[in-house]
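Students often ask why we bother encoding 3D structure as a string. The short answer is that it lets us treat folding as translation between two languages. Here is a chain of 331 residues written in the first language.
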Amino acid sequence: MKLSIGIVGLPNVGKSTLFKLLTKQEITIANYPFATIDPNVGVVSVPDERVQKLSKLSSSKKEIPAVVEFYDIAGLVKGANKGEGLGNQFLANIRNVQAVAHIVRCFGQGDIIHVESTVDPIRDIDIIEMELIFKDIETVDKRMGKLEAEARGNDKTAIKNLGVLKQIRAELEAGNLTGRFKDEPIVHELQLLSAKPQLFLLNGSPEEVSEDVKRKIAEMGFEYLIADLKDESAVPELIKKAYAILNLISFFTTGEDETRAWTIERGTKAPQAAGVIHTDFEQKFIRAEVISTEKLLEAGGWSHAKQKGWLRLEGKEYVMQDGDVIVVRHG
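And here it is in the second language, the structure alphabet:
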């Protein structure tokens, strides 16, 4: 599956700088709002030394790591939901990603102007979150109007969805995010912005991040990463945390032609994992030969692992584990 993350925040908080670090692409970074006119999309390799180790073991001709798509979404401002700044266009771009990397400026004033004139991370977080909430209220209200008409015709699905949206509307009206409804089908359909998982990247030094900011993010139920975006070391940790909040794991296939990492949700069973490799494999799945990366490396290769009896034959109910290396047997 593809992992896509939208980089959001106010103008001049470090979004485009992060994007440049992530992708090494040359993009416009300027000391004024709205330097980013269209969302830049960058495909970034997931850092995972297991790919290199397996490739070396198999003498693979190619290494294909898992990837993340990062969308650099232009800075939101207060009133974006009503079209302020570049408003609705960029709120719509957030709909298309699975998770949000929310960049918050914690570094001092210096020479870089702040769109709100002063540096106040808690205020800035509230501005972005409320813009997502206001946009979702608009989305929910539009759908509720249609569902009310369908519910009058005794459509059971419409009645259920209407009930869910009424609960969501009350949460949004109270200024709350809606992540607890994320598994509801109607939320998936509407791609509600306030239901998306978020990871906060606090742009500054640890000394510049107050306990109040940390506490606020924890109370919202999200994780954070403190990093000076002049430092490239933040990138691997950001990707790892993104995997974690989306409950994703990697499994591998390896051979002379290629070693490849595949991304699946934790809890995925073997046939569905096989389907990520090739759609036919899920339907025609018989069984899989499975071994952990660590045991395969310890054995020194597939044939040695087989001799040691370390390969397992797993059927349709097997739940894939992070780091599994598999060979799919199919009809």
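Translate back mentally: The chain is about 40% helix and 20% strand. Keep this in mind for the problem set.
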